[in-house]
Amino acid sequence: MKINVEFDITPEEARRVLGLPDLEPMQQRILAELEGKAMQYLNVIDPETILKQWVPMGIQGGLQGFEKLQDFLWSAASSVGGRAKRKTDTKEESK
Questions:
Q1: Are residues 65 and 56 in contact, defined by beta-carbon separation less than 8 angstroms?
Q2: What's the predicted TM-score (pTM) here?
Q3: Which positions ≥6 away from 66 have C-beta within 8 Å?
Q4: Cα–Cα distance for residue pair 95/77, rounded to 1 Å
Q5: Angle between helices 47-54 and 58-81 (to 10 degrees)
Q6: 78 CB contacts (<8 Å, ≥6 apart)?
Q7: Where are the domains of the chain?
Q8: Is 8 strand, coil or helix?
Q9: Tens digits of per-residue pLDDT, 31-90?
């Protein structure tokens, strides 16, 4: 014998019937806190802000900063890939 029972109730009503706690207020607080932290970090990952931090001296002095950034990125790529070379490095090796 097979018996099927269907309940037409909302999740909130099911929680009450089963005696489960209502976690919605806690979830709302956690989500609000996460949203606040995410909004703080959006300013940190703004590309313009990052470039201003890496190239602080403007265009004239910033070229040296840009070259340092480029060297940093190439060294990071070569350490990951092991074989990445800059175009200037290949020219120097051929001399």
A1: yes
A2: 0.38
A3: 54, 55
A4: 24
A5: 100
A6: 84, 85
A7: 9-45, 57-95
A8: coil
A9: 999 998 888 877 667 777 677 766 655 555 556 667 777 888 888 888 876 554 555 555
